[in-house]
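Here is the promised in-class demo. Please do not try to memorize the tokens; focus on the logic of going from shape to residues.
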């Protein structure tokens, strides 16, 4: 069982899926504000299923799910889906973008769907593209993007709505070592600066090692490994424009 956070932003207790427990037979996960954790499991261990249960794409046969102390499992489906839509950002493994839109338009899409006007949504989208160091691709067509750009654009899209929880399936796959390191640093800084709980799902121990704590998934259950060394000081927002955009101070470190 994962080490429970004192005040978990996301708390999953005893998740079973499907009813016979053949994929998950008791998954627990508690992630606190400002934490960036990794769920580490072999191929086929159930990471994508766990991610789907945590963001409401699948329903558990048993278990409960809490967000900031609020029991989501007792809410009617429509209310629960509203919470997921407003408070959760998801990076799916396939990272698909809409090929008929530009990269910036794709990243802005969650804001447009929430009713924000185009210029403001694109402005916010560009801030996130800068954050992930792919602003040069803002006006490119999203069709046929190289995988490393696609993955970071999909991360920007998952974060543009300022979610309380980010669930990211293999966010560092296909990235070179320096880009993986900088992307991991950005994800940790987002946890620290925005209070977003970051949960990364990976089969790579090297990827898990970038984050604060590793939760091992095997045999349908979760278990916590020794906490990884705390990451070095993480610079937060790169510019005063970015800080102003989010109403945050500059230069704080974890
Ligand atoms: N909706 C579903 N209903 C029932 N079983 C499922 C469902 N989705 C996936 N599975 C099964 O759950 C098991 C775990 O799959 P999952 O994709 O979660 O593994 P994973 O750990 O994400 O693997 P990988 O690292 O290869 O992505 C597989 O046997 C898969 O067939």
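The designed amino acids, position by position:
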């Amino acid at each position: 069982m994962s080490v429970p956070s004192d005040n978990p932003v996301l708390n999953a207790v005893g998740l079973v899926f499907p009813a016979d427990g053949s994929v998950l037979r008791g998954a627990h996960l508690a992630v606190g504000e400002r934490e960036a954790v990794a769920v580490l499991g072999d191929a086929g261990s159930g990471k994508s299923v766990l991610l789907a249960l945590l963001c409401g794409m699948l329903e558990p046969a048993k278990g409960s799910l809490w967000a900031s102390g609020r029991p989501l499992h007792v809410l009617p489906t429509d209310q629960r889906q509203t919470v997921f839509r407003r408070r959760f950002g998801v990076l799916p493994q396939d990272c698909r973008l809409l090929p008929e839109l530009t990269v910036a338009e794709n990243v802005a899409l969650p804001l447009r769907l929430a009713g924000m006007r185009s210029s403001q949504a694109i402005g916010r989208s560009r801030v996130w593209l800068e954050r992930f160091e792919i602003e040069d691709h803002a006006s490119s067509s999203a069709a046929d993007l190289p995988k490393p750009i696609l993955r970071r654009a999909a991360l920007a899209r998952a974060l543009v709505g300022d979610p309380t929880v980010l669930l990211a399936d293999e966010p560092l796959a296909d990235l070179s070592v320096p880009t993986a390191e900088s992307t991991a640093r950005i994800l940790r800084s987002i946890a620290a600066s925005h209070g977003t709980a970051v949960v990364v799902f990976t089969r790579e121990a090297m990827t898990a090692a970038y984050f604060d704590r590793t939760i091992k998934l095997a045999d349908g259950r979760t278990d916590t490994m020794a906490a990884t060394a705390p990451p070095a000081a993480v610079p937060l927002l790169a510019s005063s424009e970015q800080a102003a955009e989010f109403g945050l101070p500059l230069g704080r470190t974890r």
